[in-house]
Amino acid sequence: MNKLYIGNVSEEATEKDFESVFESRKIPYTAPFLVKSGFAFVDCPDEKAAMKAITELSDKVDLLGKVLRVEYSVPKHQRSCKLQIRNIPPHMQWEALDSMLAEYGTVESCEQVNTDTETAVVNVRYSTRDQARLALEKLNCAMTENCSLKVSYIPDENAPEGPRRRSFNSRGPPRTGSPSMGPRPRGHADMPLRMSVPMQFVGAIIGKEGGTIRNITKQTHSKIDIHRKENAGAAEKPITIHSTPEGCTSACQIIMDIMRKEAVDTKFNEDVPLKILVHNNFVGRLIGKEGRNLKKIEQDTGTQISISSYQDLTMCNPERVVTIMGSIENVIKAQEEIMKKVLESHDSDRAAMSSTMIPGLNLNSLGLFPSGPQCGGPSMPSMPLGAHGGHSSYGAHPESECVNLFIPAQAVGTMIGRQGAHIKQLSHFAGASIKIAPAEEKESQLRNMIIVGPPEAQFKAQCRIFSKLKEENFFGPKEEVKLEAQIKVPSFAAGRVIGKGGKTVTELQNLSCAEVVVPRDQTPDENDEVVVKITGHFFACQLAQRKIQEILAQVRRQQQQVKPPPSPQGHMPRRK
Questions:
Q1: What is the pLDDT of residues 158-201, one digit of tens each?
Q2: At a CB cut-off of 8 Å and minimum separation 6, what does 74 contact?
Q3: What secondary structure letter does DSSP report for 439?
Q4: pLDDT, tens digit, for every residue of 282-299?
Q5: DSSP 8-state secondary structure symbol assigned to residue 445
Q6: Region (Disordered): which ranges (predicted)?
Q7: Between vectors from CA 85 to CA 87 and to CA 196, what angle results, nearest 5°?
């Protein structure tokens, strides 16, 4: 995916002109340029160089009176379902991006590309060629928050084979990460190693003209991104290593050797620990019950390990810093054990998600199972929740739901956080309105968290709440977190949830493994609604909630079908 097409080229442009443009901006390329009438091609050594050329040159550089257009060179047979979208506003939230992309079809994957630009870049795969073509036509040059989106095809390795032609610069075996290597393997290969390194060592890691970092990538068969422009002015910078677990470990060891040697040469007086960035979703399982997992790693490797506070997390940084002190040999052993635990959690979560198959959710939009730097994606405030209507799941906007989730009363302070920081952060992360209702009785053992938002927001908010209760030890080491959730349904639909002779609710309990109860003899509230109680672990609760919402949707559709047609005088066209 590192061959570039350069369009809008002047008839007078020569190979030397392009060499000058690339070299003046320090963009690596593999000579020669192939200059044709009105366009040109060039190979870049890696994806990072290709992205640098696209972001710095396309629609920005005037060559002999014409503004160049630079994008990936994609053979016709590979112009299928895969697009790259560039110049995405830096504050755009994943949910907003997913919503925008979903207007043109089903999005199978949406992955962020690491770049040094302030705006974000993502690679998107649609389920069909027509959907991808429509998205390209509608989104290219579309204005979003004063940013003009740039959309182009990228090679789709899964597209049907077309006639193959030898590249003008094809030599030797395919490069690591090039399209000819096929799609990246799933599983562990999706989970890079993220490190945090002091800014004063970044130059030594990169080396003169990038020589050191190139040698590391070559030796370890890895792709390494040093995010120098992230967190301007910060004392430390993140590094992302993409490789096999063995390749990540080898690259990490070389980088640690370089840093400690540089510390000696520059008379840096402090110890240089290894700092790994781990997504907060995995930290609880890394620590283990009563800290047993972490203690065992420390004992087995002869290291000291600490983890940054949950309070240090921000919306743009859901990663915790795992600091490992010890000799390089021992530190690397600890890194291997830590990443094994993280990878196990990562794969377990993906397997659980796949096996549960919760209906009604856009799982790709959840962002719960990171495959790279997590904040890296676009991030922008969610759609105002007032647009969803009231707290009734039936009377509100069809995609907005209200769930009352009951948590231990002693956990309220933890959920709110210092000056409300945690509950605000949780609300922004999930894209939901989250409030804690006042206690109904002074000695009440449970408190009601009111969560209002669409299905994906409910999933994300409830997942974080279940995880937080476990991490903060509100449930015992061998105790599974089980909570009661309550949703309101129209009183006339309660019978549909129960089913004839209780058949539906029994099937629902067997399917979800949650306890589902529609209390008898309820008096409907002022909105003519009654409560359905759902108790169980996280996935059980989610599956039961989604199934009940499916039943309510069926009731709505049937009601609309039996409504009498409006009189001709009062006829109004229905809004779509």
A1: 555 544 444 334 333 333 333 323 333 334 445 789 999 998 99
A2: 5, 152, 153, 154, 155
A3: P
A4: 888 888 888 889 999 999
A5: S
A6: 154-190, 556-576
A7: 70
Q: Which of 402, 546, 425, 413 is nearest to 469 (CA)?
A: 413
Closest of 464, 455, 460, 346 to residue 411, by C-alpha: 464
Contact 545, 356 (CB under 8 A): no
Report DSSP state, residue 157.
T
Q: Environment class of residue 396 by beta-carbon count within 10 Å: exposed (0-12), middle (13-18) or buried (19+)?
A: middle
Return the structure tokens found at 185: 């393997």
Cα dihedral 296, 299, 300, 301 sign: positive
Q: Which of 322-331, 384-393, 496-505 comes out lowest in average pLDDT?
A: 384-393
pLDDT of residue 410: 92
For 254-397, list the strands marked E by DSSP.
274-279, 304-307, 319-325
Q: What are phi and psi of 332, to 5 degrees?
A: -65, -40
Q: How far apart are CA 110 and CA 132, in angstroms?
A: 13
CA distances from 366 to 86, 314, 432, 557, 573 (A): 21, 17, 13, 27, 36
Higher pLDDT, 304 or 98: 304
Residue 95 has pLDDT above 50, yes or no: yes
Q: Dihedral, CA atoms, 123, 128, 130, 134, nearest 10 degrees?
A: -40
Stronger pLDDT, 182 or 548, i.e. the higher one: 548
| CA 325 vs CA 134, 298, 304: distances in Å | 53, 10, 5
> Does residue 497 carry a pLDDT above 60?
yes
Over the stretch 234-285, which tens digit does the pLDDT of each residue have?
788 899 998 888 889 999 999 999 999 999 988 887 789 999 999 887 888 8
Q: Is the dihedral of CA 272, 277, 280, 282 positive or negative?
A: negative
> Which one has a higher pLDDT value, 113 or 504?
504
Residue 6 has a CB neighbour count (10 Å cut-off) of: 27
How far apart, in Å, are the Cα atoms of 248 and each of 53, 227, 276? 27, 17, 12
* Mean pLDDT calculated for residue range 418-438: 88
Q: What is the mean pLDDT of the chain?
A: 79
Query: Identity (one letter) of the amino acid at 540?
Result: A
Angle (nearest 5°) at CA 429 between 100 and 463: 110
Distance between CA atoms of residues 422 and 260, nearest Å = 37
CA distances from 118 to 55, 61, 214, 393 (A): 10, 18, 24, 39
pLDDT at 288: 85
Which H, E and C letters describe 374-425, residue by residue? CCCCCCCCCCCHHHHCCCCCCCCCCCCEEEEEEEEHHHHHHHHCHHHHHHHH
| Higher pLDDT, residue 406 or 35 | 406
Bridge-based pairing state of the strands 529-536 and 515-517? antiparallel
Q: Are strands 483-490 and 433-436 parallel, antiparallel or unpaired?
A: unpaired
Report helix, strand or coil for 278. Answer: strand
- Check if the beta carbon of residue 262 is closer than 8 Å to that of residue 203: no
State mean pLDDT over 501-518: 87
Q: How far apart are CA 475 and CA 471, in angstroms?
A: 9
Tokens of 282: 């995995």
